[in-house]
Specification:
- The chain is an alpha/beta fold and 401 residues long.
- The protein has three domains: 173 residues, Rossmann fold, CATH 3.40.50.300; 92 residues, no CATH class; 116 residues.
- Helices cover 48% and strands 10% of the residues.
- The chain has 17 helices and nine strands.
- The strands form three sheets. A five-stranded parallel sheet has the order 2-5-8-1-9. It has a two-stranded antiparallel sheet with strand order 3-4.
- Helix 15 packs antiparallel against helix 16.
- The longest helix is centred in the middle third of the chain and has 21 residues.
- The mean pLDDT is 87.
Protein backbone atom coordinates (compact mmCIF):
# COMPACT_ATOMS: atom_id res chain seq x y z
CA UNK A 1 0.00 0.00 0.00
CA UNK A 2 1.46 3.35 -1.01
CA UNK A 3 0.86 5.94 1.68
CA UNK A 4 1.35 8.69 -0.93
CA UNK A 5 -1.98 7.78 -2.54
CA UNK A 6 -4.00 7.90 0.65
CA UNK A 7 -4.62 10.50 3.37
CA UNK A 8 -2.48 10.26 6.49
CA UNK A 9 -4.05 7.75 8.85
CA UNK A 10 -5.70 5.71 6.09
CA UNK A 11 -3.20 2.85 6.08
CA UNK A 12 -3.40 2.50 9.86
CA UNK A 13 -7.21 2.56 9.63
CA UNK A 14 -7.28 -0.29 7.10
CA UNK A 15 -4.96 -2.40 9.27
CA UNK A 16 -7.10 -1.78 12.35
CA UNK A 17 -10.23 -2.81 10.44
CA UNK A 18 -8.67 -6.18 9.57
CA UNK A 19 -7.01 -6.96 12.91
CA UNK A 20 -8.35 -10.01 14.79
CA UNK A 21 -9.13 -9.22 18.41
CA UNK A 22 -9.36 -11.22 21.63
CA UNK A 23 -13.14 -11.51 21.38
CA UNK A 24 -12.90 -13.70 18.30
CA UNK A 25 -14.14 -10.94 16.01
CA UNK A 26 -12.38 -8.82 13.41
CA UNK A 27 -11.44 -5.19 13.86
CA UNK A 28 -10.17 -2.94 16.65
CA UNK A 29 -12.54 0.03 17.16
CA UNK A 30 -11.09 3.17 15.57
CA UNK A 31 -11.68 6.86 16.28
CA UNK A 32 -10.51 9.13 13.45
CA UNK A 33 -9.66 12.73 14.33
CA UNK A 34 -9.64 15.08 11.33
CA UNK A 35 -10.74 18.43 9.96
CA UNK A 36 -14.13 18.72 8.24
CA UNK A 37 -14.19 18.03 4.51
CA UNK A 38 -11.07 15.84 4.32
CA UNK A 39 -12.76 12.72 3.03
CA UNK A 40 -13.16 10.52 6.10
CA UNK A 41 -16.71 9.49 5.22
CA UNK A 42 -15.92 9.14 1.52
CA UNK A 43 -12.93 6.92 2.23
CA UNK A 44 -15.01 4.55 4.35
CA UNK A 45 -17.87 4.57 1.84
CA UNK A 46 -15.40 3.45 -0.84
CA UNK A 47 -15.02 0.16 1.04
CA UNK A 48 -18.73 -0.58 0.75
CA UNK A 49 -19.96 -3.49 -1.39
CA UNK A 50 -23.22 -5.41 -1.56
CA UNK A 51 -21.78 -7.93 0.92
CA UNK A 52 -19.85 -5.40 3.00
CA UNK A 53 -22.11 -2.44 3.84
CA UNK A 54 -20.93 0.79 5.43
CA UNK A 55 -23.64 2.33 7.62
CA UNK A 56 -23.19 5.92 8.81
CA UNK A 57 -24.99 7.12 11.92
CA UNK A 58 -24.65 10.76 13.01
CA UNK A 59 -24.30 10.43 16.77
CA UNK A 60 -25.80 13.84 17.61
CA UNK A 61 -29.18 13.14 15.98
CA UNK A 62 -29.75 9.81 17.71
CA UNK A 63 -31.32 8.93 21.00
CA UNK A 64 -29.64 6.63 23.55
CA UNK A 65 -32.29 3.99 22.79
CA UNK A 66 -31.00 3.83 19.20
CA UNK A 67 -27.93 2.13 20.65
CA UNK A 68 -29.27 0.46 23.80
CA UNK A 69 -32.60 -0.69 22.36
CA UNK A 70 -36.09 0.63 23.10
CA UNK A 71 -37.62 -0.99 26.21
CA UNK A 72 -40.98 -2.65 25.54
CA UNK A 73 -43.31 -4.78 27.68
CA UNK A 74 -43.83 -8.30 26.40
CA UNK A 75 -45.35 -11.14 28.45
CA UNK A 76 -45.11 -8.96 31.55
CA UNK A 77 -41.36 -8.59 31.08
CA UNK A 78 -39.20 -5.73 29.82
CA UNK A 79 -37.54 -6.49 26.50
CA UNK A 80 -35.38 -4.29 24.31
CA UNK A 81 -36.38 -3.86 20.69
CA UNK A 82 -33.48 -4.10 18.25
CA UNK A 83 -33.07 -0.89 16.20
CA UNK A 84 -33.77 -1.24 12.50
CA UNK A 85 -30.25 -0.22 11.52
CA UNK A 86 -28.82 -3.48 12.90
CA UNK A 87 -30.57 -5.39 10.08
CA UNK A 88 -28.28 -3.61 7.61
CA UNK A 89 -25.52 -6.03 8.65
CA UNK A 90 -27.39 -9.25 7.91
CA UNK A 91 -24.47 -10.61 5.88
CA UNK A 92 -21.70 -13.13 6.49
CA UNK A 93 -19.05 -10.64 5.38
CA UNK A 94 -19.87 -8.07 8.06
CA UNK A 95 -19.37 -4.40 7.29
CA UNK A 96 -18.59 -1.10 9.00
CA UNK A 97 -20.69 0.77 11.55
CA UNK A 98 -19.52 4.37 11.18
CA UNK A 99 -20.42 6.65 14.09
CA UNK A 100 -19.76 10.12 12.73
CA UNK A 101 -19.40 13.40 14.66
CA UNK A 102 -18.93 11.54 17.92
CA UNK A 103 -18.04 14.61 19.96
CA UNK A 104 -21.43 16.13 19.15
CA UNK A 105 -23.14 13.25 20.96
CA UNK A 106 -24.46 14.25 24.40
CA UNK A 107 -23.21 12.32 27.45
CA UNK A 108 -26.31 10.09 27.56
CA UNK A 109 -25.68 8.90 23.98
CA UNK A 110 -21.96 8.41 24.71
CA UNK A 111 -22.90 6.23 27.68
CA UNK A 112 -25.14 4.10 25.45
CA UNK A 113 -22.31 3.73 22.95
CA UNK A 114 -19.96 2.28 25.57
CA UNK A 115 -21.60 -1.13 25.35
CA UNK A 116 -21.80 -1.04 21.55
CA UNK A 117 -18.07 -0.35 21.20
CA UNK A 118 -16.74 -2.59 23.98
CA UNK A 119 -19.19 -5.49 24.15
CA UNK A 120 -20.51 -5.22 20.58
CA UNK A 121 -24.08 -5.33 21.89
CA UNK A 122 -27.10 -3.25 20.97
CA UNK A 123 -29.28 -3.73 24.01
CA UNK A 124 -29.02 -7.49 24.51
CA UNK A 125 -28.51 -8.19 20.81
CA UNK A 126 -25.03 -9.06 19.53
CA UNK A 127 -23.64 -7.23 16.54
CA UNK A 128 -22.70 -9.69 13.78
CA UNK A 129 -19.21 -11.11 14.25
CA UNK A 130 -17.46 -9.30 11.41
CA UNK A 131 -18.94 -5.81 11.82
CA UNK A 132 -16.16 -3.29 12.37
CA UNK A 133 -16.72 -0.09 14.38
CA UNK A 134 -15.30 3.26 13.29
CA UNK A 135 -16.00 6.71 14.73
CA UNK A 136 -14.93 10.16 13.62
CA UNK A 137 -14.65 13.54 15.31
CA UNK A 138 -13.16 16.97 14.77
CA UNK A 139 -10.00 17.75 16.80
CA UNK A 140 -10.69 19.45 20.15
CA UNK A 141 -9.34 22.81 18.92
CA UNK A 142 -11.86 22.80 16.05
CA UNK A 143 -14.91 21.80 18.04
CA UNK A 144 -17.69 24.36 18.25
CA UNK A 145 -19.93 23.26 21.08
CA UNK A 146 -20.28 19.58 21.68
CA UNK A 147 -18.94 17.49 24.50
CA UNK A 148 -15.57 16.06 25.48
CA UNK A 149 -15.44 12.29 25.20
CA UNK A 150 -15.48 10.53 28.53
CA UNK A 151 -12.24 8.64 29.40
CA UNK A 152 -14.04 5.24 29.42
CA UNK A 153 -15.26 5.81 25.86
CA UNK A 154 -11.91 7.20 24.66
CA UNK A 155 -10.11 4.14 26.02
CA UNK A 156 -12.14 1.80 23.85
CA UNK A 157 -10.65 3.14 20.60
CA UNK A 158 -7.35 3.32 18.78
CA UNK A 159 -7.09 7.04 17.94
CA UNK A 160 -5.80 7.98 14.49
CA UNK A 161 -4.99 11.42 13.05
CA UNK A 162 -6.46 12.00 9.58
CA UNK A 163 -4.96 14.49 7.14
CA UNK A 164 -5.58 14.96 3.44
CA UNK A 165 -2.23 16.25 2.20
CA UNK A 166 -1.88 18.62 -0.74
CA UNK A 167 0.00 15.96 -2.74
CA UNK A 168 -2.76 13.38 -2.29
CA UNK A 169 -5.48 15.89 -3.14
CA UNK A 170 -3.65 17.15 -6.26
CA UNK A 171 -3.25 13.58 -7.52
CA UNK A 172 -6.93 12.92 -6.86
CA UNK A 173 -7.96 16.00 -8.85
CA UNK A 174 -6.36 14.50 -11.94
CA UNK A 175 -6.97 10.78 -11.48
CA UNK A 176 -9.50 10.39 -8.69
CA UNK A 177 -8.78 8.91 -5.29
CA UNK A 178 -7.04 5.53 -5.14
CA UNK A 179 -9.58 2.84 -4.25
CA UNK A 180 -8.92 1.55 -0.75
CA UNK A 181 -8.39 -2.16 -0.16
CA UNK A 182 -8.40 -4.06 3.11
CA UNK A 183 -5.14 -5.98 3.73
CA UNK A 184 -5.08 -9.74 4.25
CA UNK A 185 -4.10 -10.75 7.79
CA UNK A 186 -4.23 -14.57 8.27
CA UNK A 187 -5.66 -15.31 11.72
CA UNK A 188 -3.26 -18.16 12.59
CA UNK A 189 -0.17 -16.14 11.65
CA UNK A 190 -1.52 -13.16 13.54
CA UNK A 191 -2.09 -15.25 16.66
CA UNK A 192 1.57 -16.29 16.77
CA UNK A 193 2.81 -12.72 16.30
CA UNK A 194 0.42 -11.45 18.95
CA UNK A 195 1.92 -13.86 21.48
CA UNK A 196 5.37 -12.46 20.65
CA UNK A 197 4.21 -8.91 21.29
CA UNK A 198 2.49 -9.89 24.52
CA UNK A 199 5.86 -11.25 25.67
CA UNK A 200 7.52 -7.96 24.77
CA UNK A 201 4.85 -5.99 26.63
CA UNK A 202 5.24 -8.32 29.63
CA UNK A 203 8.97 -7.74 29.71
CA UNK A 204 8.62 -3.97 29.15
CA UNK A 205 6.10 -3.60 31.98
CA UNK A 206 8.29 -5.68 34.27
CA UNK A 207 10.92 -2.97 33.92
CA UNK A 208 8.50 -0.01 33.84
CA UNK A 209 5.38 -1.08 35.80
CA UNK A 210 4.28 2.55 36.12
CA UNK A 211 3.51 2.56 32.36
CA UNK A 212 0.75 -0.04 32.61
CA UNK A 213 -1.62 2.91 32.96
CA UNK A 214 -1.31 6.60 32.20
CA UNK A 215 -3.51 9.55 33.05
CA UNK A 216 -6.29 10.43 30.56
CA UNK A 217 -5.57 14.07 31.37
CA UNK A 218 -2.02 13.86 30.02
CA UNK A 219 -3.03 12.54 26.58
CA UNK A 220 -5.69 14.16 24.42
CA UNK A 221 -6.45 10.94 22.61
CA UNK A 222 -5.29 7.42 23.53
CA UNK A 223 -3.87 6.59 26.94
CA UNK A 224 -2.38 3.46 28.50
CA UNK A 225 -4.53 0.93 30.35
CA UNK A 226 -4.69 -2.88 30.38
CA UNK A 227 -7.42 -2.66 27.71
CA UNK A 228 -5.41 -0.40 25.41
CA UNK A 229 -2.30 -2.58 25.83
CA UNK A 230 -4.41 -5.55 24.64
CA UNK A 231 -5.43 -3.57 21.57
CA UNK A 232 -1.84 -2.49 20.99
CA UNK A 233 -0.61 -6.11 21.06
CA UNK A 234 -3.15 -7.09 18.41
CA UNK A 235 -2.36 -4.12 16.18
CA UNK A 236 1.42 -4.53 16.44
CA UNK A 237 0.98 -8.20 15.52
CA UNK A 238 -0.89 -7.12 12.37
CA UNK A 239 1.99 -4.81 11.48
CA UNK A 240 4.39 -7.73 11.94
CA UNK A 241 2.33 -9.95 9.63
CA UNK A 242 2.40 -7.18 7.02
CA UNK A 243 6.16 -6.59 7.36
CA UNK A 244 5.86 -3.28 9.21
CA UNK A 245 7.45 -4.16 12.55
CA UNK A 246 10.67 -2.58 13.84
CA UNK A 247 11.76 -6.05 15.00
CA UNK A 248 12.04 -7.34 11.45
CA UNK A 249 15.48 -7.43 9.87
CA UNK A 250 16.47 -4.07 8.45
CA UNK A 251 13.08 -2.54 9.20
CA UNK A 252 13.03 0.87 10.82
CA UNK A 253 9.95 1.84 12.80
CA UNK A 254 7.25 2.43 10.21
CA UNK A 255 4.99 5.44 10.62
CA UNK A 256 1.92 3.19 10.65
CA UNK A 257 3.35 1.06 13.48
CA UNK A 258 3.92 4.18 15.56
CA UNK A 259 0.48 5.59 14.65
CA UNK A 260 -1.30 2.46 15.85
CA UNK A 261 0.74 2.05 19.03
CA UNK A 262 0.47 5.72 20.03
CA UNK A 263 -3.21 5.68 19.13
CA UNK A 264 -3.71 3.02 21.81
CA UNK A 265 -1.39 3.96 24.67
CA UNK A 266 -0.44 7.59 23.99
CA UNK A 267 2.66 9.21 22.48
CA UNK A 268 4.92 9.11 25.54
CA UNK A 269 4.34 5.46 26.42
CA UNK A 270 4.61 4.46 22.75
CA UNK A 271 7.98 6.19 22.40
CA UNK A 272 9.27 4.40 25.50
CA UNK A 273 8.09 1.01 24.23
CA UNK A 274 9.57 1.40 20.76
CA UNK A 275 12.89 2.49 22.24
CA UNK A 276 12.84 -0.61 24.44
CA UNK A 277 12.15 -3.15 21.68
CA UNK A 278 14.57 -1.58 19.20
CA UNK A 279 17.41 -2.05 21.68
CA UNK A 280 16.64 -5.72 22.27
CA UNK A 281 18.93 -8.32 20.69
CA UNK A 282 16.36 -10.96 19.94
CA UNK A 283 17.01 -13.82 17.52
CA UNK A 284 14.04 -15.56 15.93
CA UNK A 285 13.16 -18.38 18.40
CA UNK A 286 12.17 -20.77 15.60
CA UNK A 287 15.43 -20.11 13.73
CA UNK A 288 17.36 -20.87 16.94
CA UNK A 289 15.51 -24.15 17.59
CA UNK A 290 15.91 -25.18 13.95
CA UNK A 291 19.67 -24.60 14.11
CA UNK A 292 19.60 -21.80 11.53
CA UNK A 293 20.77 -19.13 13.98
CA UNK A 294 23.23 -19.58 16.83
CA UNK A 295 22.72 -17.62 20.02
CA UNK A 296 25.29 -16.62 22.62
CA UNK A 297 23.24 -16.52 25.82
CA UNK A 298 25.99 -14.74 27.72
CA UNK A 299 25.52 -11.75 25.42
CA UNK A 300 21.81 -11.44 26.29
CA UNK A 301 20.40 -9.63 29.28
CA UNK A 302 17.73 -11.10 31.58
CA UNK A 303 14.83 -9.56 29.66
CA UNK A 304 16.13 -10.95 26.37
CA UNK A 305 16.59 -14.44 27.86
CA UNK A 306 13.08 -14.35 29.30
CA UNK A 307 11.54 -13.35 25.97
CA UNK A 308 13.59 -15.86 23.97
CA UNK A 309 12.72 -18.89 26.12
CA UNK A 310 9.07 -17.95 26.27
CA UNK A 311 9.21 -17.63 22.51
CA UNK A 312 10.34 -21.27 22.31
CA UNK A 313 7.03 -22.46 23.80
CA UNK A 314 5.04 -22.01 20.60
CA UNK A 315 7.45 -24.23 18.65
CA UNK A 316 7.46 -27.06 21.21
CA UNK A 317 3.71 -27.24 21.76
CA UNK A 318 1.52 -30.34 21.53
CA UNK A 319 1.07 -29.63 17.82
CA UNK A 320 4.81 -29.90 17.10
CA UNK A 321 5.61 -32.77 14.73
CA UNK A 322 7.55 -35.66 16.27
CA UNK A 323 10.73 -35.21 14.22
CA UNK A 324 10.79 -31.46 14.82
CA UNK A 325 10.26 -31.97 18.55
CA UNK A 326 13.30 -34.24 18.83
CA UNK A 327 15.58 -32.15 16.63
CA UNK A 328 14.62 -28.91 18.36
CA UNK A 329 15.21 -30.50 21.75
CA UNK A 330 18.78 -31.22 20.72
CA UNK A 331 19.18 -27.45 20.51
CA UNK A 332 17.06 -26.57 23.55
CA UNK A 333 18.61 -28.87 26.18
CA UNK A 334 22.15 -27.47 25.85
CA UNK A 335 20.69 -23.97 26.01
CA UNK A 336 18.88 -24.81 29.24
CA UNK A 337 22.06 -26.31 30.71
CA UNK A 338 23.90 -23.13 29.71
CA UNK A 339 21.31 -20.99 31.47
CA UNK A 340 21.60 -23.10 34.64
CA UNK A 341 25.41 -22.78 34.61
CA UNK A 342 24.98 -19.01 34.32
CA UNK A 343 22.82 -19.01 37.45
CA UNK A 344 19.73 -17.76 35.59
CA UNK A 345 17.47 -20.76 36.05
CA UNK A 346 14.76 -18.63 37.66
CA UNK A 347 14.42 -16.55 34.47
CA UNK A 348 13.39 -19.52 32.31
CA UNK A 349 11.36 -21.25 35.03
CA UNK A 350 7.96 -19.82 33.88
CA UNK A 351 8.57 -21.07 30.34
CA UNK A 352 9.66 -24.52 31.56
CA UNK A 353 6.64 -24.70 33.83
CA UNK A 354 4.33 -24.06 30.89
CA UNK A 355 6.08 -26.63 28.71
CA UNK A 356 6.06 -29.30 31.41
CA UNK A 357 2.56 -28.74 32.72
CA UNK A 358 0.52 -27.46 29.79
CA UNK A 359 2.31 -28.97 26.80
CA UNK A 360 3.61 -32.18 28.50
CA UNK A 361 6.88 -31.46 26.70
CA UNK A 362 9.19 -33.58 28.90
CA UNK A 363 6.88 -36.60 28.93
CA UNK A 364 6.41 -36.44 25.15
CA UNK A 365 10.14 -36.10 24.60
CA UNK A 366 11.00 -39.13 26.75
CA UNK A 367 8.36 -41.28 25.09
CA UNK A 368 9.22 -40.33 21.53
CA UNK A 369 13.00 -40.51 21.86
CA UNK A 370 12.66 -43.96 23.46
CA UNK A 371 10.89 -45.10 20.30
CA UNK A 372 12.80 -43.16 17.65
CA UNK A 373 16.23 -42.08 18.94
CA UNK A 374 17.81 -44.15 21.77
CA UNK A 375 20.94 -41.98 21.89
CA UNK A 376 18.85 -38.84 22.28
CA UNK A 377 16.75 -40.62 24.90
CA UNK A 378 19.92 -41.27 26.89
CA UNK A 379 20.85 -37.59 26.61
CA UNK A 380 17.39 -36.56 27.78
CA UNK A 381 17.52 -38.87 30.79
CA UNK A 382 20.97 -37.57 31.76
CA UNK A 383 19.66 -34.04 31.44
CA UNK A 384 16.68 -34.80 33.66
CA UNK A 385 18.86 -36.50 36.24
CA UNK A 386 21.14 -33.47 36.52
CA UNK A 387 18.53 -30.78 36.08
CA UNK A 388 16.02 -32.25 38.53
CA UNK A 389 18.33 -33.76 41.15
CA UNK A 390 18.21 -32.73 44.85
CA UNK A 391 16.59 -29.28 45.05
CA UNK A 392 16.11 -29.40 41.29
CA UNK A 393 13.76 -32.35 41.71
CA UNK A 394 11.72 -30.32 44.17
CA UNK A 395 11.51 -27.61 41.53
CA UNK A 396 10.21 -30.16 39.06
CA UNK A 397 7.54 -31.36 41.50
CA UNK A 398 6.40 -27.76 41.82
CA UNK A 399 6.60 -27.40 38.06
CA UNK A 400 4.10 -30.15 37.33
CA UNK A 401 2.11 -29.90 40.55
Amino acid sequence: MSQKKYPKGAEALLIALQTPNNKGTIGIPVLIWGKPGEGKSSFLDSLSTSDFPVLTLIASIHDPTDFSGLPIIKNDKVHYAVPEWVEKFDTKEGGILFLDELTTAPPAVQAALLRVVLERKVGFHDLPKYVRIVSAANPPDLMTGGWELSPPLRNRFVHLQWELTTEVYKAALLNGFEKARLPEIPIDEHKGKEQEYKLLINSFLSRTPNLLSSSPENDRYGFASPRSWDNAAALMASCAVLGLSPLQTGQETSSVFLELLAGCVGDGVATNFIGYIKNLRLPDPKAVLDGIVEVDLEQLNESEIFILFNGFKRFLSKETEETALIERSKILIPLIENIVSMGNKDIIFPAMRHLAKEEHYIARLIRRTAQKDPQMNKTVMQFLESFFSSEGFEDYVKLIG
